[in-house]
Write a structure and sequence with these properties.
The chain is an all-alpha fold. About 65% of the residues lie in helices and about 0% in strands. The chain is built from four helices and no strands. The longest helix is centred in the first third of the chain and has 19 residues. It comes from Oceanobacillus caeni.
């Protein structure tokens, strides 16, 4: 059965509402709160070199820096592990 134009518009509107609700279910809080200057550098680097390259480089630097810390005794609970993996 094909939908009428009115039914299609109603479906589109309902889908938009569902997506809006889903997007607002949980607030996105960044793991690290960068200051404005760092955010500006990141945006400029992404524009010049591309998002993938910048993400890779930032992950390398942050990963290396965190490897200097003694974190062996720190345990994450189940919720924190799930967030870390996503």
């Amino acid at each position: 059965m094909k939908a009428t134009e009115i039914e299609s518009k109603r479906f589109d509107k309902a889908l938009d509402e569902i997506l809006d609700l889903f997007n607002n279910l949980e607030s996105d809080e960044p793991i690290i709160k960068y200051n404005d200057e760092v955010l500006s550098f990141i945006e400029k680097a992404k524009k010049k070199y591309g998002e993938d390259i910048v993400n890779e480089k930032v992950n390398i630097v942050v990963g290396e820096m965190l490897s200097w810390l003694d974190l062996e005794d720190v345990k994450l609970d189940k919720d924190e592990k799930e967030e870390e993996e996503s």
